[in-house]
Design a protein that fits this description.
heterodimer; A: alpha/beta; Rossmann fold; 2 domains; 25% helix; elongated; B: alpha/beta; 9-stranded mixed β-sheet; two-stranded antiparallel ribbon; 15 strands; binds flavin-adenine dinucleotide; binds adenosine monophosphate
Chain lengths: 336, 272
């Protein structure tokens, strides 16, 4: 089996582990590779890449893993990573190359698209093969989710796209799946870093990032104070989710900027979004269009947020939330 | 010290329409504003200039009326401006846009830093900044939430990632893209508005920047928009009023049932 002409996905390996989104990418890649009748190849860069880690990619759907280890790849520095990918792309000429639309993917891929002279579509939520032309159809929301655009790359290769996290479930793990691991030598590659990493400051442990959360509980202006967010934190804990906010709590400093959802914040695609005391301005809606299910709690029955909600609770959040938390706690499996 | 800010003029996004035939935006009749996320880029450039002295040049590619965005940036405190405008630049994707901007930057001569916004609110890609850095082989930091000069002349940048903050030192010349957290944009001043009004803004086409005609505009764009659809925004929300205790109980019962239906079960989370 050979990575040449295959469908490639970039697996993000950071802080000693593969990022969950890499498995979602393999689910996208698997469908495309089968459609095209070519292998699916997962590309991984890092300093030390143990076999067990690489095997996990095969168990999640890859036919082949192309791994490259070098101390210069220990941290996320754009130039050496992009130059290595350039060398691999030029050598094997994949048809399709996907990365996650994370801060990493959305930095590395546009840089790489210039080095390899290829087009790139950002933040796709749908990918398919055109039955006639065999080209990759890349569908993405634009203008704050008001339109869906489908984009093709007729000539340039590879056809490159970043894919929004949580836009597909990973495939079920199959420990019996076979595949091969190709460790590519770093000799001859341009690994010069132009930027120096001085430090990495991890987020506090309980602050899971909102992009990868399955459930997001967000508060708006109605939360009134930073301390009231404890209520949302409690609910988030019960439902295994993260806390987000509209712009107002961020502007007031009740919540940090990485938790802001909407036009000038994050775009999210959780399985469930619960909006508490958020009116549903067009700028806020821009960030939540691709949430699977939406529950809104608002005391104004005419709030625009109800137009995009599946379940609309018309009431005071300071009454509804504590009662909901109490009720959910009653349903908890008995603690041991 | 010379800092270049790349800004884009965008339609007021809440009212945008697309032409389903051509797949391009119908910009006619819409109010045009500076991409709101580029205001943070302008502010960052002005602060970095204040700290070290020098000039800030604001650069945009767009139709002739994009000149008004440049004047607005000058009114905020930028020193001069360049407009890239020509029919042949039209229809550019991020690759061709970055190529065109790179050619313009080359023509502008020596500089220390380029500042871009995180993304433009119309195309919504965030690709132009990193692509421009690649064309010019510049040290790059995206999603910058903090940027300050170091004693050794490098730029210290904090970069927001999903799991934390990466602290980087960039030798200059460099390129950064900034997020909203970095600073709150200042308002135009009266003096700035006077300067802006009087300023001569050069307009450059493909010849002035020695652009390869095959690499600009729609012709130079590797990607093609083939279809545009407007997704249905509204869902039929099931409304649960909560006036009385009974209504509250019913609403909570329904909510718990809904959670079960979509496979979300309460769990003993963390320190609860
Ligand atoms: C360029 C630009 C970019 C922007 N980017 C973003 C962005 O990224 N994200 C974003 O969110 N906004 C953004 N905004 C701001 C946006 O326009 C709105 O101002 C903002 O979303 C409003 O936040 P909110 O819904 O929390 O507040 P409000 O609009 O004030 O709504 C509060 C809601 O809470 C309800 N309420 C009050 N008390 C209670 C209670 N006790 N119980 C239940 N409900 C209650 C009210 O009925 C009301 O509907 C942007 C604006 C601009 C111009
Ligand atoms: N036509 C343009 N002229 C100048 N700068 C641009 C242009 N398009 C994009 N940019 C810059 O690149 C950033 C990202 O834009 P985009 O990749 O289109 O989302 C913007 O915030 C601007 O700083």
């Amino acid at each position: 089996m050979n990575p040449a002409g295959a469908v490639w996905t970039l697996s993000e390996y950071a802080h000693g582990r593969l990022q969950a989104v890499s498995f979602e990418l393999l689910a996208w890649g698997r469908g495309l590779a089968d459609e095209l009748g070519v292998p699916l190849c997962a590309v991984v860069l890092g300093e030390h890449l143990p076999d067990s880690t690489l095997q996990a990619l095969i168990h999640h759907g890859a036919d082949l893993v192309l791994a490259l280890e070098h101390p210069a790849l220990a941290q996320f520095l754009v130039r050496p990573q992009a130059q290595v990918l350039r060398a691999l792309v030029e050598r094997y000429q994949p048809q399709v190359f996907l990365a996650a639309a994370t801060t990493t993917g959305r930095t590395l891929m546009p840089y790489l698209s210039i080095l390899v002279d290829a087009g790139l579509t950002a933040d796709c939520t749908g990918l398919a093969i055109d039955p006639e032309t065999r080209l990759l159809l890349q569908t993405r929301p634009a203008i704050g989710g008001n339109i869906m655009a489908t984009i093709k790359t007729p000539e340039a290769r590879p056809q490159m796209a970043t894919v929004r996290p949580r836009s597909k479930q990973p495939l079920p793990v199959d420990p019996a799946r076979n595949g091969c691991i190709l460790r590519h030598p770093a000799e001859g590659m341009d690994l010069r870093a132009d930027v120096e990493q001085l430090a990495f400051i991890p987020n506090p442990a309980q602050d899971g990032s909102i992009e990868e959360a399955e459930v997001i509980i967000a508060g708006g202006r109605a939360m009134k104070t930073a301390t009231n967010f404890a209520l949302l934190q409690k609910l988030a804990q019960l439902l295994g989710g993260s806390v987000g906010a509209s712009r107002v709590p961020v502007d007031y400093g009740w919540q940090p900027y990485p938790r802001q959802i909407g036009l000038s914040g994050k775009t999210i695609s959780p399985r469930l979004y619960i909006a508490c005391g958020i009116s549903g301005s067009i700028q806020h809606l821009a960030g939540i269009q691709t949430a699977e299910k939406i529950i809104a709690i608002n005391k104004d029955p005419d709030a625009q947020i109800f137009q995009v909600a599946d379940l609309g609770i018309v009431g005071d959040l300071f009454e509804v939330l504590p009662a909901l938390i109490e009720r959910l706690e009653q349903c908890l499996p008995a603690a041991d | 010290m010379r800092i270049i800010v790349a800004i884009k003029q965008v339609p007021e996004t809440s009212k945008v329409k697309m032409d389903p035939e051509t797949g391009t935006m119908q910009r006619a009749g819409l109010e045009a504003i500076i991409n709101p996320l580029d205001l943070y880029a302008i502010e960052t450039a002005l602060r970095l200039k204040q700290a070290a002295g020098g000039l800030v040049t604001v650069l945009t590619m767009g139709p002739p009326k994009a000149e008004s965005a440049l004047r607005e940036a000058v009114a905020m405190g930028c020193d001069d401006a360049v407009l890239l405008s020509d029919r042949r630049f039209g229809g550019a994707d991020t690759w061709a846009t970055a190529y065109t901007l790179a050619q313009a930057v080359r023509r502008m001569g020596d500089f220390d830093l380029i500042v871009c916004g995180e993304r433009a609110t119309d195309g919504d890609t965030g690709q132009v900044g990193p692509s421009l850095a690649a064309f010019l082989d510049l040290p790059l930091a995206t999603y910058a939430s903090k940027a300050e000069w170091m004693a050794d002349g490098r730029l210290r940048v904090e970069r927001l990632e999903e799991d934390g903050r990466q602290v980087l030192a960039l030798p200059v010349p460099a390129l950064i893209t900034v997020v909203k957290e970095i600073a709150s944009p200042r308002l135009p001043t009266l003096r700035g508005m006077k300067t802006a009004k009087a300023l001569q803004i050069p307009v450059w086409g493909p010849e002035e920047i020695e652009a390869d005609p095959g690499r600009i505009g729609l012709k130079g764009s590797p990607t093609r928009v083939v279809k545009i659809e407007s997704p249905k925004l509204t869902r039929a929300a099931e409304m649960l009023p909560v006036g009385t205790q009974q209504e509250l109980d019913d609403a909570l019962a329904r909510t718990c049932q809904f959670l079960r239906q979509i496979g979300i079960e309460p769990k003993n989370g963390g320190a609860a």
